[in-house]
Specification:
CATH architecture: Beta Barrel
Helix content: under 10%
Number of helices: 1
Largest sheet: 8 strands, antiparallel
Order of helices and strands: HEEEEEEEEEEEEEEE
Number of strands: 15
CATH class: Mainly Beta
Radius of gyration: 19 Å
Strand order of the largest sheet: 2-1-15-14-13-12-9-8
Structural class: mainly beta
Strand content: over 45%
Length: 215
Amino acid sequence: MKISILLIIVIVFAESCDLIKSDAKSSDSISGTTDIPINTVGNTFSNNVSIGTGSYSGSIAITAVNDGVATVKFQLPLPANVPALTVIPSKYKNTSGKLSCEGKFKMTDEGILDFNNKEHEPFVLVKYDGKVGDKYTHKKSDGTTMVREVVRKSSDDDFYWNGMIIKTIDVEQSSNIPGVDHILYFCNHKFGVVAVRFKMEDGSQMQLNVVPSKY
């Protein structure tokens, strides 16, 4: 009995002091604090979408943070010359035909969770201490599985972004979007998601570049 009580005390102490970490490959949880500048109401993200030689900009802003989970509002152009974008339902567009929707993200100093799947369940987007080959999976209600895999991690500053050269951890996601082969997220431990690249089945690509005003 004394051993059992002692064991419980040790476990409680370890968890409260964050000495026991969550599984590094857990697909639905991350550690760290959400009390960081990037995860605050009013934070805006300058952005542009580059498609071939064209470039389009929209607006991205955090409108609320509840229990550390940020609501992010997106308003972005949807160029008519990209067939994959024609499948986006009208409920996600405004009267001007621009993408207008909200997403939920939990951003900490150790990674990012998103809740933007059909089931609205937490799904790891990135863990900054992740290693190449780490995979995060989410089984959807239709029986299919979304997979995110760390495919590259900088050892040196090698990604040009916002006038700087920074390190990134790159996460590739399988795609169920018609015309899109896969999606690649470029992430940084301080700046969050800095770019999202969509690789099309025809070999072309488009990229969303993001710069937070607070970080």
